[in-house]
Design goal:
Among the domains are: 224 residues, no CATH class; 118 residues. It has 13 helices and ten strands. A hairpin with a 2-residue loop joins strand 6 and strand 7. Helix 7 packs antiparallel against helix 8. It starts with a strand and ends in a 29-residue tail after the last helix. This is Nuclease-related domain-containing protein.
């Protein structure tokens, strides 16, 4: 079954007739698999114009229209092709059909990866056929040049007769391409709806998936395209930085692709020149007589050229692998940034907690006893939204959800106060029970002991009050000095004095020492 869609009529009548002939050929094919034919397709930021695109369960083929007919010669893959000794009337942006196919190959693979296939489509899975408008005969070196093209493993072919197109499509089937009829039907219907509404397919570089595309179509069907988008949640600076990083990675990926394409073209030119040199050496080798020094020299040069060709092919393969790894890394980073931006835009705003109420000054004890105010309830606070099970972590700092609960604090303080009062009462009661009231006998004994202690304190004697005296004999100097020396060296002896006699009406304190047993 054939599903065809022409996005816009061709300006050239010959090209329009060529597309209709391709459509009729595919329509008339017997036992044909499900096929989608797209015409006049424009893809990519560089607006690559694709004449026709054919999709089958195991085919993704680009058709390139080449006007004219006659003898085809390919002097160099990097230059213009020759048709009947004149440059091919090629209207594409590239110098020849093969260079044009390389550009369209990347654009188609990127577009189908975003819109049709759930898995990325590699550029090697997209084949190409140059279909001439008239009968063309090929030069002897055309097939050899096509086989030696770098990166061409038979997925780029030339076709001069339109009836052979179905057989060529079968030959170009790629085992890695596995599309189903359901994918074809729904995808083609979406393209037809978009084309009817005046929209054209674009490659915007956003990595839009299958379900996201369906959601956008439903949104447009509901007529909600004119509703402005909501401002993204989260920090605007973080979202802007992520968008800038994503754009920078997109530019870097485009730059890598352009550099890879330029290197590819340069290597193709060098390889073509090397192939021509090898062909000339082989011709000279076949024409030269055997067993000569020139033949040996030619054989050595031919072996050297062959070795250089092999080294160049190895370098080209390494470059392709490196570029593929870089592209995969860039794609992964772009996808991660896209997911992060979507998570930040779909994240609900974090509620701002209310400020804690100011505590009143502590009242005095009398005021607290006179009028005990009820504990002031804490202000109500909105409950935070329930976290989803697969919610992405928020990059912004979260505010603490802890809050002092005043009713519970008041209850704890009251309980602690009650326990303290009970403990104090028990201690006071136990002290009263342990200490008995003092009896009169104990009071009398206490007074007697006090009087006895006062009696033990004796008054000082006259010998304690009298100052120290020193008697000097001035009659004899030597004797006085000797007595001074003796008195200084000997301990001082205080003579005993008789106790003074009390006069009439005078009462003296007793100097009698009390017994030790008192």
């Amino acid at each position: 079954m054939l599903h065809s869609l022409l996005f816009a009529s061709f300006d050239d009548p010959a090209r329009q007739a060529w597309y209709e002939a391709v459509h009729d050929t595919l329509q008339a094919e017997a036992n044909a698999p499900p096929t989608v034919l797209l015409g006049n397709l424009v893809l990519g930021a560089e607006e690559e114009e694709i004449d026709a695109l054919i999709l089958r369960p195991h085919n993704i083929t680009v058709l390139l229209y080449a006007p004219g007919g006659g003898q085809l010669e390919i002097p160099a893959t990097a230059g213009a092709w020759q048709l009947q000794g004149a440059p091919l009337p090629w209207t594409g942006t590239a110098p020849n059909p093969f260079a044009q196919f390389q550009r369209q190959q990347l654009a188609v693979a990127y577009w189908l990866s975003d819109s049709l296939s759930p898995e990325p489509v590699r550029a090697e899975q997209v084949s190409g056929i140059v279909l001439f408008a008239a009968t063309v005969s090929f030069d002897a070196g055309v097939e050899r040049y096509l086989r030696t093209l770098p990166g061409n493993t038979g997925h780029f072919q030339l076709l001069s007769q339109l009836p052979h197109l179905p057989r060529r499509l079968q030959q170009l089937a790629h085992p890695a391409v596995a599309l189903t009829e359901a994918d074809f039907t729904s995808w083609w219907q979406d393209l037809a709806d978009n084309s009817a509404s005046g929209e054209t397919p674009e490659v915007d570089g956003t990595g839009q998936g299958y379900w996201e595309q369906r959601a956008r179509q439903l949104w447009r069907w509901l007529g909600a395209d004119d509703i402005p988008h909501d401002a993204p949640y989260g920090g605007t600076t973080v979202v802007a930085a992520s968008q800038e990083e994503k754009q920078r990675l997109e530019q870097l990926r485009q730059q890598v692709r352009e550099e890879l394409l330029q290197q590819r073209q340069e290597m193709e030119a060098r390889e073509a020149e090397r192939e021509r040199s090898i062909a000339q050496l082989r011709d000279q080798l076949t024409q030269a007589p055997p067993a000569t020094a020139e033949v040996t020299d030619l054989q050595a040069r031919l072996a050297a050229e062959t070795r250089e060709k092999q080294l160049l092919e190895q370098a080209f393969q390494a470059s392709r692998q490196e570029s593929a790894a870089r592209n995969q890394e860039l794609d992964a980073r772009i996808q991660q940034l896209g997911q992060l931006i979507q998570q930040m835009q779909s994240q609900p705003p974090t509620p701002t907690p209310l400020p804690a109420p100011a505590l009143p000054p502590a009242p005095s004890r009398a005021q607290a006893v006179a009028a005990a105010p009820a504990p002031r309830p804490a202000p109500s606070r909105p409950a935070p939204p329930a976290a989803s099970p697969h919610k992405a972590p928020n990059l912004l700092p979260r505010q603490s959800a802890w809050q002092l609960r005043w009713p519970r604090v008041a209850l704890l303080v009251a309980a602690a106060g009650g326990l303290a009062m009970g403990a104090w009462g028990l201690v006071h009661l136990s002290n009263k029970l342990k200490d008995p009231e003092p009896s009169p006998q104990s009071n009398t004994r206490t007074r007697e002991s006090v009087d006895q202690e006062e009696a033990e304190a004796t008054a000082p004697s006259l010998s304690d009050i009298q100052p120290d005296t020193l008697t000097l004999d001035t009659d004899e100097g030597g004797a006085s000095r000797e007595e001074d020396t003796i008195q200084e060296s000997a301990p001082e002896v205080i003579p005993e004095q008789e106790p003074p006699t009390p006069q009439e009406g005078e009462v003296m304190d007793s100097t009698t020492t009390l017994p030790d047993d008192i």
